[in-house]
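Progress report, Aim 2. The chain analyzed during this reporting quarter is listed below.
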Amino acid sequence: MRWSEFEAACPEIADLARERFAKDELVMLGTIRPDGSPRLSPCELDFAEGHLFLGMMWRSQKALDLLRDPRIAVHSVPSDKTNPGGDVKLSGTVVDIQDPELRTAFRRAILDRIDWAPDEPNYHLFSLDVERASFVSFGDGNERCIAWDPGHGLRDVPHPG
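Predicted structure tokens for the chain:
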């Protein structure tokens, strides 16, 4: 489901993700290489028009992975081993965005964030469709573990710690 639909379905994790991603301005992506092995890559992201957008350099390996196989994992960037902000994890698929209006909205969002935007058409733009989400935090009285998917909704899950 598109980001705006995910926000409506699971505001608890969507709010944590939006806050964390906006602060970090970076996430780690998991994509699938042509041989089936995983690839981890950093990526900037932006929110606009109800989408979570992932912009990528033209013909980058992670973009080529997603054009071939749209499955993706998105993970917040840990600050250190205790990670006081917790871990946000999203998984789903991406949609290759070619619509000129959505590409313009993305360019406005990235310009607002970093005063720069890629030139058309020399970049890849994807929108995340969220299928599953989770949040886990560790540490002195700060333990929390929640998960969401459309079939089960939001639920507390046993904490791994």
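The first helix runs from residue 3 to 9. Residues 96 and 126 are 5 Å apart (CA to CA). These observations will guide the mutagenesis work planned for the next reporting period.
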